Amino acid sequence: MKADLHIHSIYSQDAISKPRTVLEMATERGVDIIAITDHNAAQSWRDFAYEARRFPVRVVFGQEIKLVNGKYNDGELLGLFLSRPIQSATAAGVIAEIAEQGGIAVIAHPFCDRRSEFRAFDQIDDWSRIAIEARNGRTFKKRDNEMAESLAERLALPATAGSDAHTPFEIGSVYIEFDGKNIDDLKRAILHRDVRIGGEPSSAIFTLLSGFGRFGISV
User: What CA–CA distances, in Å, run from 33 to 46, 57, 87, 117, 205?
Assistant: First the structure.
């Protein structure tokens, strides 16, 4: 099966994709499972749960959480397989909340200097449920994605990958493949490091296009 584990909708202010459009595009591109990971928001979960009944695509609920350290940004974490929104903004707090829900905390685009590299490695005490986003569809420097994949390999950590789509046109550009039939199988495959990463980053032009989301434009 194929899964894109980093997708944004109109509930992220810098994205333009409606939930139904996300599901339509995922279906068209042969993506079996998506993770909806809006920025510090979970309002989209209800819409996706409702709309997904009409599509063959399964939905993992998640969030992308910006880590705040005083006036500094320590990077971002993805929370996957969530059942309730994350409230914390520090690395330790976010990781603890995700673990309490039985989810997986993923270090998002760890070396993408364009969006603040991950700087909270020293705040992670328990690495047992930490994964690395080894390939990100909006990390345009090949070296940055290669470093992320190398980090996962050297630390023997689970790896995920996703398009980081903020527009419908990016969905499925980066993905993982795994052997299984459902979301539970996906979670096991990630934790057992039994996934295959595929796809390539999309065009940087979509970064400009997604900015129209700040003006309420959606598709």
Answer: 17, 5, 25, 27, 25
Whole-prediction pTM value?
0.96
E-only strand ranges, 82-207: 104-107, 130-136, 159-162, 174-177, 196-199
Cβ contact 61:42 at 8 Å: yes
Q: What is the mean pLDDT of the chain?
A: 95
Fold type of domain 2-215: TIM Barrel (3.20.20)
Residue 59 near residue 46, CB atoms below 8 Å: no
Six-digit token string for 64: 């992308």
Looking at the DSSP bridge assignments, the partners of residue 61 are: 36
Contacts of 39 (CB under 8 A, 6+ apart): 8, 12, 13, 14, 63, 64, 66
Domain coordinates in residue numbering, the chain: 2-215
The number of beta carbons lying within 10 Å of the beta carbon of residue 81 is: 18
Rg of the chain over all Cα atoms, to the nearest angstrom? 16
Write out pLDDT tens, residues 35-44: 999 999 999 9
